[in-house]
Structure prediction request, 312 residues.
Amino acid sequence: MSERAQLQTLSVHESVENVIPPEAFVAAFDDLDLDVELVGDGESYDETDAVATYVPRPEFLDAGWVHCIRAGYDEFDTAAYEAADVPLTNSTGIHDTTVSEVAIGFMLSLARLHHVYRDHQNEREWYTPEYERPFTVENERLCVVGLGTIGRGIAERADALGMDVVGIRRSDEPVPGVSEIFDPSDLHDAVDDARFVALALPHTPETEGLIGAAEFEVMRDDAYLINVARGPLVDENALVDALETDAIAGAGLDVFETEPLPESSPLWDFEDVIISPHKGSATNRYHLDIADLVTENVERYLADDSLRNRVA
Prediction:
């Protein structure tokens, strides 16, 4: 007999609409042997309830288990969940394809000028770049900082494009598609010869401000920064300075210190900075990816097994 109370209900909090359509998400659980309902604030929960949510709410601490549909769970008080003995899980590990494709798209556009051509298309201008400007990513060095799920996804796809991929991680265990692995303490050695530096790390006190003035000084002046991880990993003032002084060539950015990116940010004004609005995981089946993970954990919960991606 399971030591956990039998789950009866999966409550989908309306806040999931921040990233996925709530009704479609609920419908994705049609085959689940639980009552699945869309709920708002102020509901009551007990140990027979599971909750899938984008935001934390105090009442969730009365549930049997809570799933944050985001990979980032900074807003959730993990100590409170542990004190209440309520498991908290997140949605890390499902973004290897979605987010890595965005990173690869940034690199291809910055190399082949797709973003520049589109800018001129908007002005109905036939534009020819200087001969020396476009280049192919094949044989160019990419340094992937962080070789977790997303970092491995970037490395795999970059390797398939013929890029020379190196990476940074604490373990020196080999990673497919990565020719050399550097320890985090050797960050400068890893990035100094890379045409692209792609960030794929979580935001922690240790990684905040990881890329700043010292790192931009080390990077090649024809290098590009790719950030599909978290905005606070990069000192944005230092990034702007590096772009203004041509210390680096450009950037592809999906995340920022402040989101939405303020209209006053100088980052909007650089031709070779591509900005997307934190949509690295946004596809028309993202709700299904999350639902698959939640369904797996429902099965684990009912079997009294350890939950995947448990963070508290």
User: Anything to note?
Assistant: Residues 200 and 244 are 25 Å apart (CA to CA). The chain is about 30% helix and 15% strand. The radius of gyration is 22 Å. Residues 96-275 form a domain with the Rossmann fold fold (CATH 3.40.50.720).
